[in-house]
Structures are given as structure tokens and as C-alpha cells.
Amino acid sequence: MPRIDALVARNLGWSRAAARDAIADGRVRARDGAALDPRTDVGDDALPLAVMIDDAPDELVDRVDLMLHKPVGCVTALRDPRHPTAYALLRDAPLHAELRPVGRLDLDTSGLLLWTTDGPWLQRLTHPKRALPRTYQAALARPFRSPPRDLELDDGHRPHIEGLDTLPADDAHPALARPAEATVLATITITGGAYHEVRRIFAALDSHVLALCRVGFGRLQLPRELPPGGYRAIAPADVAG
After folding, report:
1. pTM
2. Residues 2-15: pLDDT tens digits?
3. What are the respective helix, strand and coil percentages of the chain, to the nearest 5?
4. Where in the chain is the domain with CATH 3.30.70.580?
């Protein structure tokens, strides 16, 4: 269980010593104004911990799990010298310094990107044996052929395709761009995350991806109303039980 001084330090980006000093000076207090003991352990049932910080109400958390609607044009990175980062879109999120992406979406792919401060959960979600489905919608330059059972990509990788079909325009997610030259929309679900896997699958099926959006990860779906760059908290059970 985390101690109160550790929670204050992590949530506010302070050192443990600065957190203890702020608690001792009364800058961080209980909601009812009572003084806090920095050594007190905080159980899961007390989280998020409601406090007053410099006379303003706030909540201290021990873990953060988020979904982000990643826009096209930013990279899945904590820092990048050439492109905007998805990480920067989360600058106001709790425990921002500890957030890490669950997998990646490339520069030209939009959609559902998960972030967490929980390292073991991140590893479980991305481990190949977990094989959680990822669902994408794509705008294509031309129709695709049916995949053979032994479909093999240019590097020898054999993708695991759980579903592949054309997508009626009315069913397309608002996050999917529709270039004027697109002739068909498609939806594809895979259990894997190899480099540019969806784009390479359609290339192997004699088509070409013009726009790509991830709309599902595990059981979690990208809300149609969540705008590009927007994020919201999720529960781990929403992704996988």
C-alpha cells in the first residue's frame, strides 16, 4: 500500500521531502481540514484519496489507465525531435510522468491507443500469448481479394486474421478519414501487432491503405464521440477480463 507522502509526491511531481514538508505545513490536508500523517498507508478502498491542496479540492491516485483517440500526425512516443507526440496530449492527465503506451500506432494511423502506469498490466496486454484482438477500419485505394489460409507477408510473417470484410459507409467510425480516391472501406480484426501489419496485409491482398484507424482493442471500443486528442479513464476489466 502506498503512503500518503508517496502519493502526494507522485501526483504533484514533487520529491518525497517536499511532499512531507507540504503536509506538515498544512498545504495538503484532508477534505474536512484535518491534518494528515505522511506515514499513513492508503488502501485500495480509500483510493482515489480526496484531499485539499492549497485550499483546492483534489484527488490522489495510485494508478491510471486511459484510452486516447490518437490523431494522425503524432507519434506514439514520449519524446520525438521531429513530430508531435501522443504523450504530450496527456500532459494534464494524473500521473502523467508514469504513463506508458500499450503498443503503438504509427504516425499515419489514428484511433484507440491505451496508456497505463501499471507495468505488469502493460506487459500482459502486449505479450504475444495474450493475443488480444485489435480491430481496425481502413479506407482503401481498390478492393482486396480474399486472404488465403496460408497468407504470408513480405517478411515471412503469417498474420492471424479473425475477421475481414467490406465496411458500409454508414458503419464507418467518425475517426476514419475518407480520402476522395478511396474506392472501398474495410474492417479487419487481427490478434497481433507486427510492424505495419494491417497495411502489409492489405498490400498482400492486392490493395493499398489510404487511411487507417484502430477502433477496438480487446473488449474496448473507441467511443464515436471522443474527439481526436481526447482521452478518458478506463477500467482494466473493460479491455480484458
Report:
1. 0.92
2. 999 999 999 999 99
3. 20, 30, 50
4. 65-127+220-238
